[in-house]
Design brief:
single chain; about 220 residues; alpha/beta; 6-stranded parallel β-sheet; 7 helices; 6 strands
Length: about 220
Amino acid sequence: MTNLLFIAGSSRKQSFNKQLANAALKTVQQSPGATNITTRYIDLAHFDIPLYNGDLEDEFGIPADALRLAAIFTMQDGIFIASPEYNGVYSALLKNTIDWMFRAIGHHIGDDIGDDNAYDKGDDIEPFKDKVICLAAASTLDGGGARGLIQLRTLMGYMHSHVIPNQFTLGNADQAFNANGNITDQTKQACLEQVLGQFVATTTALSGSELDQNLAQTTLAYL
């Protein structure tokens, strides 16, 4: 079984990047033969993680929600990240979240971290190493947030993750989704499917899982 996580680097309720992450998740779920894949979306707004401060860590340790989120990341094989572009870079929320999870490396997943039964209790927390990362961005501007993904790709490389070559950007995002959260432009949707095909195929191969024959035909068509 291949575990895929979908997140957005935004806490805004009507975030276009949240919509993109959910559209990507839905696309994978509806792919032929996706029975060997588990998908999960999490909203960073639901995690109470303060701005990183070394003095805060020294006095109180790693925040519980940062440990919980790092544990969730640890249990994944692949992570889809949709991040807004702020002043040419990825979001501060995403950077702060990654910084806190990095500090959690080496801790153990304990019985006191959340109530998620998917945790393997006692495993070391390793939220980034060897994870397959798929990058995406949505923006109301024509560029679709592409500039912010340059630095994000570099950062995830430092985290010893495998960032797939292809990425997806969605410009004019304020006009891109219908009431059901689907991307209305079929060309853009096809581009998203191509990127997700590479994401799924790479993650499945590196995790050692078997790729369903129907899904294999779909993903290989994208590569």
